[in-house]
Amino acid sequence: MAWTLLVLAGLLEVGWAIGLKYTQGFTKPLPTLLTVLSMVASMGLLGLAARTLPIGTAYAVWVGIGAVGAAVLGVALFGEALTPARVLFLVLMVVAIIGLKATSGH
């Protein structure tokens, strides 16, 4: 259950990271509200997952999911560059997330 909560927390982190772009510096009320709600929910779920999982593992996976998701959506939504080096490092992050899960003992 902790891993499910952690993945959901990571997906919500992607949501708020992308949401920051849509808030336009927190000047747009609805995107700002949705972004703040995503932040609170993401942190709350991370906290619940960290009750069971080691904090180093939980935090690294949470950040990794957020970083990979934000980078992928940055390409898809905002036309950010997708270079071979960027793909390589995103793949390495995914491998690291899988490795942390595989070696966590939970």
From TrEMBL:
It comes from the Bacteria. The chain crosses the membrane at residues 33-50, 57-79, 85-103. InterPro entries: EmrE-like, Small_drug/metabolite_transptr, Small_multidrug_res. It is found in: Cell membrane. Its main location: membrane. Pfam families: Multi_Drug_Res. It is a multi-pass membrane protein. Keywords: Cell membrane, Membrane, Transmembrane, Transmembrane helix, Transport. Belongs to the drug/metabolite transporter (DMT) superfamily. Small multidrug resistance (SMR) (TC 2.A.7.1) family. PANTHER family: GUANIDINIUM EXPORTER, SMR FAMILY PROTON-DEPENDENT DRUG EFFLUX TRANSPORTER SUGE. This is Quaternary ammonium compound efflux SMR transporter SugE. It comes from Deinococcus navajonensis.
